[in-house]
Design goal:
Length: 325
């Protein structure tokens, strides 16, 4: 036993002195037990659906179960706090959406640091929003929306899925970049906002494309523009906001994070697993069916993207004075 301990000490010393020892570290197994994937949302939403598409496939790649653990509440911050306090061995991961970036500005006292408490692993999927209008509204394009709003400040309103939601912030970003003044009407979810937009109780709203598509196609609402930088395949005739307003982007995204302190080789193993899973045609098809687009990218790219998203939405939130608590 004493010899084994001495050997371990010498091995650690060699690893500190020689770079080649990294190959020994990378040979360590991962995962060695079931992986807990915390999702800060209730079952049934897009974040949960995408997590449940990716999770079982990671189980196949790794040979260990990946168990989705839904922990909804407080804009997904409860789940994030739980994950931040988990053992940094890679067996607890966090699946987040773009609301994770917004929470950094919305909540004064988070139980974690949105950047320092986690290692970025990979962007998994994205989905744009679409601005909808009641057909009675004369505006058919974003340029016309802006012209009407500037001519009559405060006359027009827009609905969202709730205060501080991504659909709310999409409207606040539009106001921040153009100076227009529209009244925000928060709802408890996108569906009731859609009902009121169709009825004409509100003029505009921001919504997910899958949820809006059938109503756009039937003419019950009009699609003004999509919030991604590229046009969407399901609405190819609808312009992006960026075509009129360069730099505008309000994309919902979904990503994998790991608690800070997880060894680099584990982060790389997790990332490699995600890349492998996203290459499978069946996975890509399932994600597209859920209304999202498969992505990918390196941990470094995700880390940079996360920081830029936090900075963007914190600025918008501060300008609109939207701090939740």
């Amino acid at each position: 036993m004493k010899l084994h301990r001495q050997g371990a000490v010498w091995a650690l010393a060699l690893c500190a002195a020689f770079p080649f020892c990294g190959t020994l570290v990378h040979a360590q197994p991962y995962p060695t037990k079931p992986v807990r994937l915390i999702v800060g949302f209730a079952p049934g939403g897009t974040a949960d659906i995408v997590a449940r598409i990716v999770g079982p496939k990671l189980s196949e790649v790794w040979g260990k179960s990946v168990i989705v653990d839904n922990r909804p509440g407080a804009g997904s911050t409860l789940g994030a706090e739980l994950a931040a306090k988990a053992s940094p061995d890679g067996h607890t991961l966090l699946f987040v959406s773009s609301s994770y970036a917004a929470s950094a500005g919305l909540y004064k006292n988070l139980g974690y640091d949105p950047v320092k408490s986690f290692n970025a692993v990979s962007l998994v999927a994205t989905t744009p929003q679409v601005m909808l209008a009641n057909p009675a509204v004369p505006a058919k394009t974003l340029s016309e929306v802006l012209a009407l709003a500037k001519a009559s400040p405060g006359k027009f309103n827009y609905g969202s899925a709730g205060e501080g939601s991504t659909t709310h912030l999409a409207g606040e970003l539009l106001g921040s970049m153009t100076g227009i003044k529209m009244i925000h009407v928060p709802y408890k979810g996108g569906a009731p906002a859609l009902v009121d937009t169709i009825a004409g109780s509100i003029q505009y709203m921001f919504f997910t494309i899958p949820g809006a598509l059938q109503y756009v196609k039937s003419g019950r609402v009009r699609a003004i523009g999509v919030t991604s930088l590229k046009r969407h395949a399901d609405l190819p005739e609808v312009q992006t906001f960026a075509e009129t307003l360069p730099g505008y982007e309000a994309t919902n995204w979904y990503a994998m994070l790991a608690p800070a302190g997880v060894p680099d080789f584990v982060v790389k193993r997790i990332h490699a697993g995600i890349v492998e899973v996203l290459k499978e045609p069946s996975v890509a098809k399932s994600i597209v069916s859920a209304g999202a687009d498969p992505q990918g990218g390196t941990p470094e790219e995700m880390a940079g993207y996360l920081k830029s998203e936090i900075a963007k939405w914190t600025k918008v939130i501060k300008e609109a004075n939207l701090v939740v608590k």
